[in-house]
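Technical appendix A lists one of the benchmark inputs used to test multi-chain prediction within the project. The record comprises two sequence entries:
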Amino acid sequence: MIEVQSLTKNFGGRAILRGVSLRVSPGEAVALIGPSGGGKSTLLRCLNGLESFDAGQVRIADHQLHGGVTPAPRALRPLRQQVGMVFQQFHLFGHRTARDNVTEALIHVRGEETSRANARALEVLTRVGLAHRLDAYPHELSGGEQQRVALARALAMEPRVLLMDEPTSALDPERVSDVVELLRGLRDGGLTLVMVTHEMKVVRKLATRTVVLHGGELIEQGAPEEVLERPRDPRTRAFLALA
Amino acid sequence: MCVPLPCHTGVVTRGLTLVLLGGLLQLGCAREEGGSALEAVRRAGVLRWGVDIQGGEPYAFEDPEQPGKLIGFEVEIADAIARELGVRAEPVQNDWSNLIPSLERGTFDIALNGLEVTPSRAGRVRFSRPYYVFALVLTAREGDARVVDLASLKGHRVGTLANSLAWETLLQVGAEAVPYEGVREPYLDLAAGRTDAVLMDDMIASRYGADVPGLRTVGEVGEGRYAIAVRPADNDLAVAVDDALGKLLQSGELRKILARWKLDNARQEKLSHDVDTGAPSSQRALSGGHVLLFLQAAGMTLLVSTAAMLLASLLGLVLAILRRHGPGAVSALCVIYVELFRGTPLLLQLYVLYYGLAGVLDLGPVTASVLGLGLNYAAYEAEVYRAAMTSVPRGQMEAALSLGMTTPLALRRIILPQALRTALPGVTNDFIALLKDSSLVSVLTVVELTKRMTITAVDVRSWFLPGLLCAAMYLAMSLPLSRWARHLESRLVRA
């Protein structure tokens, strides 16, 4: 489903990613962990073309991205309709209600009827526990509610791959397990997940594989219990000791 | 000599200030109660005379060979009068349209600069005996047989200088008088078919109209007099000036001066006969008719401003979007547009659009006004929108793109609706500014609110009431807008 080959990205004369390679199969849930500044978010953003990169290539959901090329936004449309993204800062559309945040792309990108889009919005917002907040604007929602709307917005598009940056960071502890449960169901249904997270509980419950990024390099990967319990790389050990 | 720019444009922007100044001064500044003006002049040894040297040849102008030195037939007359009074003449530069208000506030002792004796002016100042008899010259297009005399002008558009004798003559015969502020433009517009005739003093007609191709001189259809304006309270100075002019006439010096400037002719024989400049007409009060004209002018201001703002908003939006999201060359063009239109005077732009491009682009005065103001304000609106778009977090665009939107769709559905909210108060403020800047279009002969005020002020011989009425009408338009802007801002803060 995803194949990253020797991805290299420099920014301002600094190497952000140094030749990262990664393969993700359909239905896998990959957790990107590691210290801040290690390149986790940048890698995630490279996967849906929000960041261009200098060398290497990415194949994702049958689409190709090449290093050194900045594709036109129009060319990325098919890719992005199949690859969903949940941002760390949510980026809900400030002038739209929770429902309209979800229906916006259904209507204007996929061309769905309003009534159908509204039904779909109700369905996904119900799944994230927000059926009662349909008409609330983002500034009226708590951080956790906004994060769940952002997840619902991405899910409504029925992506084949879902990219998530710290998807549980704003949630109340009791909500975290609900969301993890929901994502597990989707994973088991064949959705491919790639997430950046600092929460090891989420890694253990949700991820099928853990990837450690450090200084722009992939230094270690494996099953969560393996990496988290028996890290081989001293840098992973140092990171986990603090996490 | 060509006059490419209006001589007296300052009046439009200075009008309101003058109302306040003039109003106060008229109340409080009757100078040196009981003191003799003539004695004051003699004590000072200087006769200060108000003149606008931009009026050009032959009145009073800078010697092209000796910059800084003033020459002209009026300079020589002023010198001669001062000599008779035993003092020295000192010219004081003053915007021509404001010569009389400046005389009233005491900026100089007399005003001597092609001031025609009109009933309106005669009610406001004390005129001396005339020093020149001019003819009103009617000019029309070659082949236009409709224009034959004054009576034939009824219902036609006829260009002239506002508040001149020709202006009042045109209103009397029922012509549509089109007010200009320069002396060359009326003839150019006549040739371009924007008006049907021009009525001007012979001095202007022969110097600025005769060489315009395609025009013919219909003939002299009336005459009037140039005289020196003195404050009514300074009667002894006025009498002394009359005496001095009488002596210059008797000695033949006045005619010699006129002859030197090729102005002497049979008409000037009359100078010896009419000592009196005619009784002033009784003072006219601000009437219901005036108010009606003000309302009409306010309508013009509102029409021009609204249409211009509409154009500016739309064009500004396009400029802002192309600057941020267009290809490099297009984006650069947008930057150049904004800098060009922001960095050069609006007045100059209006002039280029209406007079400069007259050969290429045949625009009516109102169309040119809307276009000129709109193109200019589009530059400002583009910056307002650009700032507003910059204030929308980057993540909004990223989220939209991540959902598969194209950039145009994301702009339309996500970025602009949020940016416009931020921009709206700024745009409303600019609209208020535009309402007032629209007074500049009077240089394109559009009679809007400020122009109507200056015309009426001369008519009723006071700035005070017309000024108040004008200010009240501007406020009636801008206050609701300000309230709306504040309302929008408070809504924004809550959101």
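Chain B touches chain A through 20 residues (CB under 8 Å). Chain B has 19 helices and twelve strands. Comparable benchmark entries are summarised in Table A2.
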